[in-house]
Specification:
elongated, mainly alpha, 145 residues
């Protein structure tokens, strides 16, 4: 673009896909979070969690193949995660997908554009003699001298 080129349709599609991959999942997560917080923050969910903890407390003293541990949190883990840690998840997603996806998009766009064919030394010279012909002429002059 800096060279005065128009954006190709492939580049536009790739950039749109990258933006959708960076912005779409966090937006969906935040929308889902609002709906889910209502459910897991309800008194019924808290009562279920308290009942589960009480059951774990009863089972923790028993002998058996599995030792039960009473969860330390007084709130359901899903509520804690959605309330306290969802922002960290969004930041991690945007950083990782933004950088890795951006690199991949740049790589695909660069490959799609292609690079010009390498030029030979003869193509870089103005019309006339090549370096080999000039050297041959100088060698002939030195031999005659």
């Amino acid at each position: 673009m800096a060279r005065g080129r128009a954006v190709s349709p492939l580049s536009a599609v790739i950039l749109a896909a990258w933006l959708a991959a960076v912005c779409g999942p966090p937006a969906a997560l935040l929308a889902w979070r609002q709906q889910r917080l209502v459910v897991v923050g309800s008194p019924e969910a808290q009562a279920d969690w308290d009942a589960f903890r009480a059951d774990m407390r009863r089972q923790s003293g028993r002998d058996g193949p599995v030792q039960r541990k009473v969860p330390k949190s007084s709130e359901p883990p899903e509520l804690v995660w959605l309330r306290d840690y969802v922002n960290l998840a969004v930041i991690a997603w945007v950083a990782l997908v933004g950088v890795l996806g951006g690199f991949l998009a740049a790589l695909v766009i660069g490959i799609a554009r292609g690079s010009p064919a390498p030029r030979s030394a003869a193509q870089d010279q103005p019309p006339g003699q090549s370096d080999d012909e000039k050297q041959h002429h100088r060698d002939a002059q030195h031999t005659n001298e």
